[in-house]
Amino acid sequence: MLGAGVIGGGWAARFLLAGSDVQLFDPSPTAAQAVVTTLEKARRSWRRLTLAPLPAEGSLTLVDTVEAAVTGVDLVQESAPEREALKISLLAQAAEAAPPHAIIATSTSGLLPSRLADGMRGPERFIVGHPFNPVYLLPLVEIVAADRTSPEFVERAAAMYRAVAMKPLVVRREVDGFIADRLLEALWREALWLVADDVATVEEIDDAIRFGAGLRWSAMGTFLTYRLAGGDAGMRHFMAQFGPALALPWTHLMDVPVLDQALLDKLVAQSDAQAGGRSIAELERIRDDCLVAVLRGLAGEGFAAGEVVARTERELYERAGARSDGSAAADGRLRLHEVLAAPEWIDYNGHMTESRYLEVLADTTDAFLRRIGILGPYIDAGRSYYTVETHIRHLGEVHAGDRLSVTTRLLGHDEKRLHLFHEMRRAQDDAPVATGEHMLLHVDRAAGTTTPAAPEILAVLEQIAESQAELPWPEAAGSQVRGPRLRAA
């Protein structure tokens, strides 16, 4: 990595959390602390984004030269300030010292790659890999090839970015500003005119986006939004109805307001008022938490950026399942799930809210399903298990930072049913904090009916049942809520 600013630090955090080792060069004396701060924000965001077990973090090595940063690496990601001469110099140094197979990438937000590759050794491996802030959270990366870039390196770069939970968008040909920034620039230009002409304040303009079109854009983008606006007749009807409006003088297009001192003062004053005294760090936390909420919502639908989150989450779980040997607790129950209680799981009483107990137990059920072979291909074929009944006993408090370990007992099964019993304990004192009893049915999702599980699944279940055959029946299994029977008045 070359550069540890907002973008470079974000790249470092994304790769580190994905398990990749990072060698970082930045001449700034504050570079180390900047990356540590960014990594802390990234950890917090990903902990909120998914409960899937992340791989062990990669190692971060701060080095003193460009040459040391690129030695032995597979990808060089340059994120220096947006000055063409500086980037050309850094990239040329990197290309001289990097291994021949290494991809050389720049994070430029709009400079043409063919100009940046001028004089570079091995220009066939050079690409633009343009991310979006915060890099550790937003999945989009624009890939732009230079005139001498080999398609092989474009494909390899896309695969590497995809491996760190990103959505590569390969731009068909190089153009100033690429795709996203050209769209953002048009919106930014119009926003400046609205402020300059006293039509709206900066906060009112932001409200127009975040309470309206921005919400649609997060899922549908521009063209799908307009297709829907055309009703059943789709895009053709929309263009017939609203296309003539393009000729109206609604926009300044390429006309840019003069950024004189008066306009600058107005922008700064309104922006300060909008911030309401909140620091940059506070605003970044609000931004990240809101992005996590939107991404989690989209992940539930498996759509737009949510598809990337859902795919990454499934891959993380499957990777964790592949690493797990289904190790047994002392009494023979399966130990398949451990998790750290996050601060945001804690309620107003100072301990873990009851919904999180269910979440941990449900994740344990998912871990068991992966253990028996309910993985991507099986699910993609339309088969899975659905939980139809759950009984949870809350036995103890869980506080932030407690490590929870859950063991699983297979109480019974047949070709269509699974009967599971989980016991959750605090790792530090082995105190029981909850049990969960669950009945699941095997279903054909397309048909919407129960169906026998595949023979290979049933075979694994039989093996587990045999290994646990001597275990005593859990005392709490089959119990119900006990208490006084209340009568209606």
Walk me through the topology:
Layout: H1 6-17, E1 22-25, H2 31-49, E2 60-63, H3 66-70, E3 75-78, H4 84-97, E4 103-106, H5 113-116, E5 126-130, E6 140-145, H6 151-163, E7 167-170, H7 180-196, H8 202-220, H9 223-229, H10 234-242, H11 261-275, H12 280-301, H13 305-323, E8 334-340, H14 354-371, H15 376-380, E9 383-394, E10 403-413, E11 417-426, E12 432-444, E13 449-450, H16 455-467
Parallel strand pairs: 1-2, 3-4, 4-5, 6-7
Antiparallel strand pairs: 5-6, 8-10, 9-12, 10-11, 11-12, 12-13
Description:
The protein has 489 residues and is of the alpha/beta class. It folds into 3 domains: 6-178, NAD(P)-binding Rossmann-like Domain (Rossmann fold, 3-Layer(aba) Sandwich), CATH 3.40.50.720; 181-277, N-(1-d-carboxylethyl)-l-norvaline Dehydrogenase, domain 2 (Orthogonal Bundle); 326-467, Thiol Ester Dehydrase, Chain A (Roll). It has 16 helices and 13 strands. It has helices at 6-17, 31-49, 66-70, 84-97, 113-116, 151-163, 180-196, 202-220, 223-229, 234-242, 261-275, 280-301, 305-323, 354-371, 376-380, 455-467; strands at 22-25, 60-63, 75-78, 103-106, 126-130, 140-145, 167-170, 334-340, 383-394, 403-413, 417-426, 432-444, 449-450. Strands 8, 9, 10, 11, 12 and 13 form a 6-stranded antiparallel sheet that branches. β4 (103-106), α5 (113-116) and β5 form a beta-alpha-beta unit. α1 (6-17) crosses α2 (31-49), α2 runs parallel beside α12 (280-301) and α9 packs across α10 (234-242). The chain is globular. The model has no long low-confidence stretch (mean pLDDT 91).
